[in-house]
Input
Amino acid sequence: MSASAPLAVSLGDPAGIGPEIIAAAWAARKDLDLPPFLVVGGENLLREAAMMRGLDIAIRVVETPDAALETFAGALPVFGASDCEYRPGEPQPNAIAVALGSLETATGLARAGAAAGIVTAPVAKVQLASIGFHYPGQTEYLAAACGLPEEDAVMMLAGPSLRAVPLTVHCALIEVPDRLTTDLICRKARIVCNALRRDFGIDTPRLAIAGLNPHAGEGGRFGDEEARIILPAIERLQADGLDVTGPHPGDALFTPRARENYDAALAMYHDQALIPLKALDFDEGVNVTLGLPIIRTSPDHGTAFDIAGKGLADPGAMIAAIRMAGEMAARRAGS
Output
């Protein structure tokens, strides 16, 4: 993996596990051949989190992002002076403000080309909302920051066993049928296909689209969304030459045999996609945002306030997110 700029990693909530798994990822950089990255802010925070885990690591503030490329081999590069007290498991308004500033700066670096992409550590949505952050999540913020409609930022959860895309994300389950449209499914399916080609090197992506209702509606007995909304989208996509199948019953779509037949599954709602991904690949699951002009990945888990600062957090998903962002950046650089 190679790129002309480092990845930018945002701190996430300083009270969560973000700082410690970032430090642990850097400590494993040589053994895992991770691409160079810098962390936006949190010099003291990262140092204390590393000490808590018993990691003896060097941390160095860099004046420019490109300086991180030379620094990375010997010290964890930190860009920016924003910092706060390390109080794991105790969310604080001033600390979440540091997290938001880190996200905003990392996004700006990527948009300016000073970072090859961004990797966002976990934040708690309720904590962001407490300081006036009005987006449902980081994905929606990134779409707005890039000047795109919210629906053009497509969340894909990716692990060694599965890639899954929820077509509706941060909404109550009762709202899902009203949010689903044939146009929405087609629009997001095309974004997924384009991203699988560009960022994952899959020349002819295969998509499997789930039904909404049990047994994919069973011929209308359990709902008509499959016939009225989902099947017309599949037929439209097939007419455009895309390899798309469905609607598949949600309870059969994620079996080992079924997963051999597609490169990504499109689910109708949040948990339909995330439950199988987390069951299969929890410690290596990556949340990757498709459809943006910049690269963004994140560990597919939350802040884990209950274990923060106890040395129990597994850095596997953060490592996987950094690795995936580096691979995507390398493909874009070579295209």
